[in-house]
Structure formats: structure tokens, C-alpha cells
Design goal:
About 80% of the residues lie in helices and about 0% in strands. By secondary structure, it is mostly helical.
């Protein structure tokens, strides 16, 4: 009861804020990544140069990237959302690109023979067949973003990282666990949600039986 009275209200607010910092970047990152993945799959030779360049962003420590954006954008949610969106893009982009390239050319040729346009082939053939790969990237991106969102607390923008940073600063294990355990549960829950959505959307025979 003492713990609930002391941290309950703040924890609920922190979870809501953390969830916001996860869902917005992942949704934006998903849209950007799928569009880029489609474009790059059309020019695989060029993508051999572009993908490694884009992957450089993944090697920049989050604390450094958020700090740099903070200097230019300021202590506003947009700082965190921009950083997390950029981080969220690459896992989805890479898997979208690989998934589209792995679609059998014979299937696409058969679709062309049936008179389907390139857009129809993309929407009705390529993307559905690439769906398992795309959702692997989406799941990774979602779980990673839950952990990266902790960095929002570094510049005073809330989330579960508030408890973790305060706990580390005061050597209070209870505070650290108060932030870390809900973050882990959030990651597992969102990962399971992505798996469920994949099961609903993936064509039969590619993602198992649908419910």
C-alpha cells in the first residue's frame, strides 16, 4: 500500500507517456520503412549502397543521438519522437526489402501474364508474400523502441525511464524495478500484439492458421 500510494499515480502516467513514445515512432517508422523498402527493392544495385548508409544511424548510441537533437529541437516530445522514429525504421526497412526480393519471379511473371499492373502485383502478390518478413522487422522495432524510449527521461520528458534514472541516481533498486518491470511487460505485450496482427493478416500457409 505504501508503494502504491507513493508511486501509483506517477507510474500510470509514466506508462501512458512511454506507450505514446513507442506507438507513434513505430507507426511512423513502419510507414516510412515499407515505402522505402518497396522503392529500394526496385533498384537492388543502388540499395547495396543506401542500406549500409542508413544502418549507420543504428550504430549511434541513443543517448548521443537524443542529446544532439535536444540541442537543436529543444526539450519537447518531438525530440524523442524524431529520434525513436529513425531508430524504428531500419529493422522494418531491412526485412521489408529482403521479403520483397525473396518473392519468386515466376509468381510475378504469372501475375503479369494475367494482366495485373505493377501496382496490383505489389499490393496483391508481393506485399502479402513478404508479410512474414515485414512483421519480423515490426516486432523487433517495437521491442527495441520500448527500451529506447527510456531515453526520454534523460531530457526530462517522462516515461518509465524516470523511475530508472531516479533509481540509479539515488541507488534505489525499488525505483529501478518500478520502471524496468513495466517496461519489460510492455515489450512482451506489444510483441504479442504484433504477432496476433501478423496472424490475422498473413495469407494462409505462410503464417499458420488464423484465429
Amino acid at each position: 500500500m505504501e508503494w502504491a500510494n507513493r508511486y501509483g499515480a506517477d507510474l500510470i502516467q509514466a506508462i501512458i507517456t512511454h506507450l505514446y513514445y513507442v506507438l507513434v515512432p513505430v507507426i511512423l517508422g513502419f510507414v516510412i520503412a515499407v515505402i522505402l523498402g518497396v522503392l529500394l527493392s526496385r533498384v537492388p544495385k543502388i540499395s547495396g549502397y543506401i542500406l549500409p548508409v542508413l544502418s549507420v544511424f543504428q550504430t549511434i548510441p541513443g543517448i548521443v543521438f537524443v542529446g544532439i537533437l535536444f540541442l537543436y529541437v529543444g526539450m519537447v516530445p518531438a525530440t524523442v519522437l524524431i529520434a525513436l522514429t529513425i531508430y524504428a525504421v531500419f529493422p522494418i526497412l531491412k526485412n521489408t526489402y529482403v521479403g520483397l526480393l525473396n518473392v519468386d519471379e515466376k509468381i510475378k511473371e504469372a501475375a503479369r501474364g494475367c494482366g495485373m499492373s505493377p501496382l496490383q502485383i505489389l499490393i496483391k502478390i508481393e506485399l502479402p508474400l513478404a508479410m512474414p518478413n515485414i512483421f519480423v522487422g515490426l516486432r523487433l522495432s517495437t521491442i527495441y523502441t520500448v527500451s529506447w524510449a527510456v531515453l526520454a527521461a534523460m531530457i526530462g520528458l517522462g516515461g518509465l525511464g524516470d523511475f530508472i534514472y531516479r533509481g540509479v541516481g539515488t541507488n534505489n533498486n525499488q525505483l529501478i524495478l518500478t520502471g524496468a518491470i513495466p517496461a519489460a511487460i510492455l515489450a512482451l505485450t506489444l510483441g504479442a500484439l504484433v504477432d496476433w496482427i501478423q496472424k490475422m493478416l498473413t495469407p494462409r500457409g505462410l503464417g499458420g492458421k488464423r484465429g
